[in-house]
Amino acid sequence: MCFTLISFVVANISKNEGQASIYSNIFAMPMLFLSSAFYSLDTAPTWIKTLSRLNPFSHFVSGLHSTIVFDLRGAAANLFILLAFGVLALIAAILTFRWDSD
Fold first, then answer.
1. Do the beta carbons of residue 34 and residue 51 sit within 8 Å?
2. What is the pLDDT at residue 101?
3. Alpha-carbon distance 25 to 92, whole Å?
4. Which sequence spans correspond to the domains of the chain?
5. Which is nearest to 27 in space by CA: 53, 5, 59?
6. Predicted local confidence at residue 102, as pLDDT
7. Which residues of the chain have a pLDDT value below 50?
8. Closest by Cα among 76, 80, 82, 77 to 54
9. How many whole angstroms separate alpha carbon 77 and alpha carbon 62?
10. If you count DSSP H runs as helices and E runs as strands, how many of each does the chain have, helices first?
């Protein structure tokens, strides 16, 4: 839900398909690289760890990991964080929505 709502925001702020592709890459690439999906951020600088904590994809990956190791408390915490990000994305999607076809 969270990432679908983020894609609604991207669709709302772009004027054509080319811009939508560029904007989705601008949003997606930092989310992928600032999460621990591909590599560990344990030795990363403090500012990157801080950005990682503000990243919804990082919480998604952490929630999947918690589910695999049967840490239901960690999975539930990450789910609630993703729901909070989803609410913020919903608000942003509502604020950027426009009715015109241009």
1. yes
2. 65
3. 18
4. 2-35+42-96
5. 5
6. 57
7. none
8. 82
9. 10
10. 5, 0
